[in-house]
Structures are given as C-alpha cells and as structure tokens.
Amino acid sequence: MTSAVPNAPQHEEPDARPITMFGPDFPFAYDDFVKSPHGIGSVPDAVHGTKVAVIGGGLSGMLAARELLRMGFQPVVYEADQIGGRMRSVPFEGHDGIVAEMGAMRFPPSSTTLFHYLDEMGLETEDFPNPLSEATSSTVVDLKGESHYARTLADLPDVYHQVADAWLKTLEELAALVPLQEAVRQRDVRRLKEVWNELVRRYDDETFYGFLARSVPFQSFRLREVFGQVGFGTGGWDTDYPNSILEILRVVATAADDHHRGIVGGSQQLPLRLWSRPVGDASYWPEGTSVRSLHAGGRPRGAVTEIRRTEPHRFTITDAEGNIDTYPAVVYTAQSWMLLNNIRADERLLPIDHWTAIERTHYMGSSKVFVLVDRPFWKDIDPGTGREVMSMTLTDRMSRGTYLLDQGEGRPGLICLSYTWADDSLKLLPLDAGKRTEIMLNSLKQIYPDVDIRSHIIATPATVTWEAEHAFMGAFKANLPGHYRYQERLYTHFMQDRLPAPYRGLFLAGDDVSWTAGWAEGAVTTALNAVWGVMHHFGGRTAPENPGPGDVFDQIAPLRLED
Ligand SMILES: Cc1cc2nc3c(=O)[nH]c(=O)nc-3n(C[C@H](O)[C@H](O)[C@H](O)COP(=O)(O)OP(=O)(O)OC[C@H]3O[C@@H](n4cnc5c(N)ncnc54)[C@H](O)[C@@H]3O)c2cc1C
C-alpha cells in the first residue's frame, strides 16, 4: 500500500536470512511453492477444458486465471473497468513510457511471490525514491511551519531521533519485535505461531493509536504527533491511527515497508502480461494459448451485474452487456463490498457469518495527484544554499507526501504532488484535478517560496480518489479493532471442505481477503489459495513433493479466536 507505515526497524546480522512476507498469520512458503519444479497441482483429464468464471481483472484475477489455465481449466474473465485494477499506470499523451502510478507504485523485495511473477513476466524493478532512502538524494520534512533538509535521518533534529527510538523500543517492549522477525527470517513456524498468536490475543481490540499511547517511550503527546505526521520510511502514520495495531505489526514483521522498488514502465504491465502472454507449460491447451486468446475479440467479459446459485451446484452470471452464462465454479477477486451493492448477489453464495464479515470490512480511502514537468528541475542547485531546489517532501500540509520521479536525462520529470489516505484523501474527494493541483502547489509554495512548479507543468494533471471509483469504492482494506475474526473467516474461505456443501464452489480472493491488504503480495497469495481451492473442488491434487496451502492448512491455520 504504502500504508502510512514506516520502515520496519530490523536487527540485521551480516549473514542473516532475509525477512519475507512469510505469515505471520498463515506461514506458508508461497514463494517456494510457485518455484517448485513439481508445479502447483493438477486435475483429472476429465476436468480439462472446464470453464471457471474469474471476476475481476486485477492482479489477483489475472494470476488466478493464468494458473487455472496452466492446470487445464478455461478461465472466463469478467472486468468492470480495465485489466490491471489497482495496478493502474496512466500514460501522458505524447510522452511515451512515462506513467503515473495511480495505485500500487512501490514494492518491497520481501514480497517474494510477487517478485517471482515479475521475473516470470520479464519485468524489471528499480529503487523507489522514498523519504530518506538511498534512492532519494534529499528529503525535506516540514512540520508546523518549520522545514528541515536531510540526506539521512542523522541530519534531522533531535525530536525525530526520539521518535525513531521510541518506535523501536515500543516494538521491542510491546510487540516482541526481535523474536518475531527472527522467526520470520528462519521460517520457524512453531516459534512464529507462538509469538504472533499471543500478539493477536493481546491486541485484536487495540487501535494503532491506543498501542502507542500505552507505550512508555511514547508517553509524550508531541512524539505521537510527530510520529503521526511524518513517521519514517514512507511517511506519516496518523491516518492509520484508528486501525487495528495488528495491521501495522504485520507490515513491520514482514518488512513490507522496506527497500521499495518500482516496476520499470509501470506496474500495470504485470496483470497485462499475465493476461496476454502464452502459458508455456499449460496442461490440455495447445502451445501459444494465453488467457487473452481464450476470450472472443481478446477482451474480457464486462462487469458482472448478478450472480445466482442455480441447480445443480452451478453459478449463473449476468454481465453488463446482458450475457447470461453458467459455471460450475467462480473465483471472485473484486473488493467484496461490490457483492453488497454493485452486484445483485444471491444470499446463498456465502454462509451468513461470511456476509457479516463482508459487511464489516473497512476500507481506507486514498488520493493521488501527479503532474508532468518539462525536466527534473528539482535537481537544479540553489546557489544560495548549495542544495537542490526541491526535495522529496513530507509535510503536515495538504500535500502530505510529494515524490520526485526522475525519468532520466533529457526527459520530462514526473512529480507525485500528493499522496494521501483516509481523512486527508476525503478532503480532496469533491475537487477536480485543477483545484487539487492548485491546493498542492500552494502547499508546496509555502515550503519552497522560490520554486515555480507551475511554470514547468506540460500536461494535464492526473488524479484519482479510489473511494470514488465505481468498481473499487476504496483503496484497500484496513481492519479496525475487533476485526480479526472477520478477517480469519474471509481468508480461510478457500478451505471449503469445512463449509456445508451448498456453500461450496465460489472462492474469494484478492487484496481485501488477504492479511496484508494494500500490498500486492496479498493479492498474489490469495489467488494461489483460490486456485488450490478450485483444484481441490474438482478432485485435483498437488504433487507430494510440493504440497499446497490447503494441504498443510491444518498445521499452520490462522489462530481462531473464540467468542
Ligand atoms: C492507492 C494505492 C496504493 C497502493 N500501493 C501499493 C504499493 O505501493 N505496493 C503494493 O504492493 N501494493 C500497493 N497497493 C495494493 C495493490 O494495488 C493491490 O494489492 C492489488 O493491485 C490488488 O489486486 P486485486 O486483484 O486483489 O484487486 P483489484 O486490483 O481491485 O482488482 C479487482 C478488479 O475487479 C474489478 N471489478 C470490480 N467490480 C466488478 C464487477 N462487478 N465485475 C467484474 N469486475 C469487477 C475491478 O475493476 C478490478 O479491476 C496499492 C493500492 C492502492 C489503491
């Protein structure tokens, strides 16, 4: 997501194994699973060619469709908006190769399963210029009208060091940071479950803010305020303060906010390539078959408007063009709220407790504003100070986070003028691109009075507010306190032997079902769960050498909290 979550402090031994997004709720090694030469499963020949509806053409849907095709199914993709979903890279007309990342834009290398598919699809990554990171030549932190220029954390005034220390101490004292990260590194499932399950029991009812307020190192309100407004790593945290502290601890435990990399050419290429590239080693299908080639006109079906359960054990789907088709199984990857309003959904699709979980799901809003400028003028040196005229900027003003995205020598420069979440995003909701740009330029003018950003702008600004997008209604899920049980229900829904038979056959996947919403790794791993579920539903199995998430589920299942 780039939640407002900062760099996870790490205790790094020189030869330590890397921290990955292994668990902590369901510590299954998805990265090893997808890399195995034994494949991720197969189905009986009689099942080959069976149509499975895949609702949503974002990363999760595209990955599920591709892996289902590989197993010999015929995935039928429905998409309401465009292939890519929240991996939306918007080009600027007349400026080839430059895109504004409206959704996902920076990816932690700890997303090892995501990176496997990036490699498979031949995509390259590069350092992303986060605040104070190595890829960022300078950062300005501007708070309560006072600006500080820094190349590293060491250049910032003492209060920022106090905040960094307080955060590290709090994590060590209240959240068992050291054993938690060590268990993730070592992939020590028993130890990880011991430590994490205890944290779940202790903190499911706690907000992020409440967690800080009860910590001795954060007794000063001033420190909590500074931490909330600028944080460290990717920026301020206060828009996350009302959320469950477990959401934050997952990010910290798995280094999701560290060492981010951007996808060269734009993140949307990943779902687009999963859709259009032939699947080399597919069962049943002739060489050269891709998900796209299985679709008439090379286009997905339109938006789903209705899903009903029909006899015997079928799903009948209507789309926006009025087509009605019936399938023996469905993978559903759109935000789950769509099942409450945009889609007429048969109540018999899910057990009542799952509907409750969907109704209670909480999403964060998010807005971005990008401008294309004639050149990376921010690298000009101010003769008075000897510094670059403008830096990556964190501020408590309306723009909050401003990112400078160098496109290379002799090319225009790209500026993400503003990236906001929750209430800060809501403040922009009713405003058009022009008004938003004006507000952000004004905000930055207070920090850089001598820089005329407007004079460099060469294209219409690009902007988005995800909560206003019809097919999304939010940027990413963020559990509130007390939501663990809902999350556990939705995540484990792919284990359908546990459900009464009339509720089987529809598999939930995607970012909002994952434990780490706002991170593409969760879209990938929940897609793999759903693929395992579909395979199992049709009598398929994995190779004994490479058991899947459902095969080992009972040994590593997420903690189930009782009433
Ligand atoms: C602002 C923002 C910043 C982010 N930053 C990062 C980041 O830096 N790093 C990172 O790892 N992750 C980030 N993420 C998260 C990442 O984008 C998601 O995890 C991932 O893209 C989700 O993929 P998905 O397939 O689960 O869902 P989606 O991408 O939402 O795909 C669901 C698809 O379903 C479609 N749909 C909706 N309704 C219907 C219908 N009725 N019929 C058919 N189709 C329908 C939608 O149009 C959409 O294409 C960010 C997300 C946002 C919004």
Notes on the structure:
The structure is a single chain. The protein has 563 residues and is α/β, with parallel strands linked by helices. It has a domain at 41-85 and 265-360 and 476-556: FAD/NAD(P)-binding domain (3-Layer(bba) Sandwich), CATH 3.50.50.60. The protein has 16 helices and 21 strands. Strand 3 and strand 4 (95-101) form a beta hairpin. Helix 5 packs antiparallel against helix 6 and helix 11 (352-360) crosses helix 14. The model is unreliable at 1-6 (pLDDT under 50). Residues 1-2, 55-61, 78-81, 85-87, 103-107, 303-304, 333-335, 338, 342-343, 366, 466, 471-472, 475-476, 510-511, 518-520, 522-523 line the site of flavin-adenine dinucleotide. Substrate binds at residue 106. GO terms for molecular function: oxidoreductase activity. Keywords: Oxidoreductase. Its cofactor is FAD.
Short structural description:
By secondary structure, the chain is α/β, with parallel strands linked by helices.
CATH class of the domain at 41-85 and 265-360 and 476-556: Alpha Beta
Question: Strand order of the main beta sheet, please?
Answer: 7-6-16-17-18-15-19
* Beta-strand residue percentage: 15-25%
- Terminal residue distance: 31 Å
Q: Helix amount, in percent?
A: 25-40%
Second rung of CATH, namely the architecture of the domain at 41-85 and 265-360 and 476-556? 3-Layer(bba) Sandwich
Q: Determine the structural class based on helices, strands and strand pairing.
A: alpha/beta
Shape: globular
Taking Cα atoms only, what radius of gyration do you get, to the nearest Å? 23 Å
Low-confidence stretches: 1-6
| CATH topology (level 3) name of the domain at 41-85 and 265-360 and 476-556 | FAD/NAD(P)-binding domain
- Quaternary structure type: single chain
| Biggest beta sheet summary | 7 strands, mixed
What would you give as the CATH superfamily of the domain at 41-85 and 265-360 and 476-556? FAD/NAD(P)-binding domain
